[in-house]
UniProtKB/TrEMBL annotation:
Belongs to the 3-oxoacid CoA-transferase subunit B family. It comes from the Bacteria. This is CoA transferase subunit B. PROSITE patterns: COA_TRANSF_2 (PS01274). Keywords: Transferase. InterPro entries: 3-oxoacid_CoA-transf_B, CoA_trans_fam_I, CoA_transf_AS, NagB/RpiA_transferase-like. One of its GO terms (molecular function) is transferase activity. Pfam families: CoA_trans.
């Protein structure tokens, strides 16, 4: 199975030159650490940053530079800072090419639940509602099963929805899957993980066609 860092590394292969990319809280924030140096990418955070770089080394943190998850970050040459109204204007006007989000559940028709667990206190859904409503390309980085070993890749989400029919691709510690009109299609499997292992860990039906290659991470 992949680590969270390896999930982020695999997703970094989906980032293209000159993309504007929003990174959600959790695993997605790690993606900035793995983008190839030969491409130019602008990472945006909804708290008002454009031009985020990788995480700072220990001892080099600047408490005034944070992302939407309140983690300390670095910025690249040419980075800019602005208020939340301007930031969400960028998001709502579809200036972001790719959004990478974490999730607690994803359904086979591309619904995502990523903001509330029943019985847990939360401050609100944050910027996720705007991101899923505005983004045309959403990749989810998540764990395939929860701590009880139950699948989070579902026929239908059980938690409150963040967005409906918006997810295009899901990368977990076990697999890479496309969301198609016919459900989840298995594209790649984690090194050492069999197709049978993935099917067993997935509540939703999986489309499996031909030989499924291992992820390159």
């Amino acid at each position: 199975m992949l680590t969270k860092e390896q999930i982020a590394h695999r997703i970094s292969k989906e980032v293209k030159d000159r993309y504007y990319v929003n990174l959600g809280i959790g695993i997605p924030t790690l993606v900035a650490n793995y983008v190839p140096q030969d491409i130019s990418v602008e990472f945006q955070s909804e708290n008002g940053v454009l031009g985020m770089g990788p995480f700072p080394y220990e001892g080099e943190e600047d408490p005034d530079l944070i992302n939407a998850g309140k983690q300390t970050i670095t910025t690249l040459p040419g980075a800019s800072f602005f208020d939340s109204a301007f930031s969400f204007g960028m998001i709502r006007s579809k200036k972001v090419d790719l959004t990478i989000l974490g999730a607690m559940e994803v359904s086979e028709n591309g619904d995502i639940a990523n903001w509330k667990i029943p019985g847990k206190l939360v401050k609100g859904m944050g910027g996720a509602m705007d991101l899923v409503a505005s983004a045309e390309n959403i990749i989810v980085a998540m764990m395939h099963v929860n701590k009880a070993g139950e699948s989070k890749i579902l026929k239908k989400c059980t938690l409150p929805l963040t967005g409906v029919g918006c997810v295009k691709k899901v990368v977990t510690e076990l697999a890479v899957m496309d969301v198609t009109p016919n459900g989840f299609k298995l594209l790649e499997r984690a090194p050492g993980v069999s197709v049978e292992d993935i099917i067993k860990a997935t509540e939703a039906e999986l489309i499996v066609e031909g030989e499924i290659p291992e992820m390159q991470v």
